[in-house]
Design a protein that fits this description.
The structure holds two protein chains of two kinds.
Chain A: E1 3-9, E2 18-24, H1 33-46, E3 69-70, E4 73-74, E5 97-100, E6 109-111, E7 114-115, H2 118-125, H3 147-157, H4 164-168, H5 175-186, H6 195-208, H7 219-223, H8 231-247
Parallel strand pairs in A: 1-5
Antiparallel strand pairs in A: 1-2, 3-4, 3-5, 6-7
Helix pairs in contact in A: 2-6, 3-5, 5-6, 5-8, 6-8
Chain B: H1 2-19, H2 26-38, H3 41-44, H4 48-78, H5 93-96, H6 98-117, H7 130-137, H8 141-168, H9 176-199
Helix pairs in contact in B: 1-4, 1-8, 1-9, 6-8, 8-9
The chains are: A alpha+beta, B mainly alpha.
């Protein structure tokens, strides 16, 4: 199959970018979106042009490295699917595909489709941890975890930090990411000591980094490749409000 | 946003319920107007309660608007470069129209106050003669249209706002989306009952 792409090309963070049209041939329906870009890049290299830069690592949907805006939807049209797990059979060869990087002020474009997502690491540093006695591994079951708490924590812990929620949010908010981290740590007994300060610190960090405010539009959950539920945001707000109430 | 929204929503519900006294005839609704002004007179003086409510509402509207402007400005700063292709967002119509819907509501409130509170824009416009003022208003299709548009905008605003406010305050309600939808529809229908029953001649 033959596809027409309109890909965002930008040589560096400070250089203006633009959409460039390419046609890629010999694409099989079973190729992933990234494999399709690989085919394009091989051709560009043979032609002596710069390949399209994009982030990727595991290519099995669990690392969170990949992620581009495909026709205006983060990670493309398939629900709960990362870009690397998205197959070309979902695309109509007659329609051009627009490929853009995540757009958010805290995610500056490094090159082409690659953005710097280390702002999310700053959010984690501000509170996404638990304090434990370092040393020998604790005994299994030393701290009993109720099954519902384990399930909720696991659901939130599935967040791979890809940044699709920020990219999709009309407000450029990282609320779903932060909420996933706050939920995953905050519902477990191990996460209780810092539960409220964690929520408050992480929300302050994301605000300071220039992410927008949450208005619960639900765009984030819709594109999240791990299907993090919007309820996690309510839990985050709950912890933030109780932190504010306690400190005042 | 959620707290001021809750204040405004409680007022809207009381207002809607109070409006239904219109169907009890001129004495009922006009008497209700007097009752509101006489209520707590020993403490607040005649009409005192009404003014207390007005001040609280004005404060809530100003704070609600300020928060909305702050959110919109932060959103703009958070995405200085937009997407070349951005299809219809996946969230609902109600969520997308919160900001402009809010502007429409604010403009409507100004008109509504000039119409039925101050009476300046009312065809009848007699202070305290609520029933006649309302009946005079809704003889005109364009007044009915203006009120309908505003009330429907309010319905959409509540549809997203109620649900969103609960989450902002940290609550998770089972079937929150449905509950918000039902409340929004009840308020919308309740408010529209008066203009439509006048316009179609059920109440004269």
């Amino acid at each position: 199959m033959k596809y027409t792409l309109r890909v965002w090309r930008q040589d560096g963070p400070t250089v203006p970018g633009r959409l460039v049209e390419y046609t890629v041939d010999d694409i099989s329906a079973d190729m992933s979106f990234l494999e399709m870009l690989d085919v394009l890049n091989e051709r560009l290299l043979l032609q002596g042009e710069d390949p399209v830069a994009f982030d990727h690592d595991c290519r099995e949907g669990i690392c969170g490295a990949c992620g581009v805006m495909i026709d205006g939807v983060a990670h493309g049209p398939e629900k709960a699917t990362t870009t690397c797990q998205l197959h070309m059979r979902h695309f109509d060869p007659r329609k051009p595909i627009v490929v853009e990087p995540w757009r958010a002020a805290p995610f500056p474009v490094v090159r082409d489709l690659v953005v710097d997502r280390s702002a999310l690491d700053r959010v984690i540093e501000s509170g996404g941890y638990i304090s434990v006695q370092a040393g020998a591994a604790p005994d299994a079951h030393a701290v009993p975890v109720p099954k519902p708490a384990a399930d909720t924590a696991f659901e939130a812990a599935a967040c791979i930090g890809c940044g699709a929620c920020v990219a999709a949010c009309p407000n450029g908010s990282s609320m779903l990411f932060t909420a996933a981290k706050v939920t995953h740590l905050g519902v477990l007994p191990q996460g209780q000591p810092e539960r409220r300060s964690r929520a408050l610190d992480m929300v302050r960090a994301q605000d300071d980094l220039g992410f927008g405010g949450c208005t619960q539009t639900g765009e984030c959950t819709a594109v999240c490749p791990k299907g993090i539920p919007l309820d996690t945001i309510a839990r985050l707000n709950h912890d933030v409000l109780s932190a504010v109430a306690r400190s005042s | 946003m959620a707290v001021t929204g809750a204040v405004l929503f409680s007022y809207v519900v009381v207002h809607m319920a109070g409006n239904l006294k219109f169907f009890g005839g001129p004495d009922s609704i006009n008497g209700y107007g007097v009752f509101l002004r006489e209520f707590l007179t020993p403490v607040l003086g005649y009409g005192g309660l009404v003014w207390v409510v007005r001040v609280v509402l004005l404060l809530a509207v100003v704070l609600h608007g300020t928060a909305a402007v702050q959110l919109a400005r932060r959103a703009r700063k958070a995405r200085p470069v937009g997407y070349a292709k951005r299809p219809r967002v996946q969230g609902g119509y109600a969520a997308r129209t919160m900001r402009w819907g809010g502007v429409i509501l604010a403009l409507f409130v100004v008109y509504h106050l000039l119409d039925l509170t101050a009476g300046v824009l009312n065809p009848h416009g007699v202070d305290g003669d609520i029933h006649a003022n309302v009946v005079a208003d809704f003889q005109h299709w364009y007044v009915v249209l203006a009120y309908t548009l505003a009330v429907v905008a309010l319905g959409f605003h509540l549809r997203h706002g109620l649900w969103s406010a609960v989450r902002s305050l940290g609550g998770t309600v089972r079937n929150a989306q449905t509950v918000a939808l039902v409340l929004a529809v009840v308020v919308t229908v309740g408010f529209l009952a008066v203009p439509f029953s006048v316009f179609f001649g059920f109440v004269r």
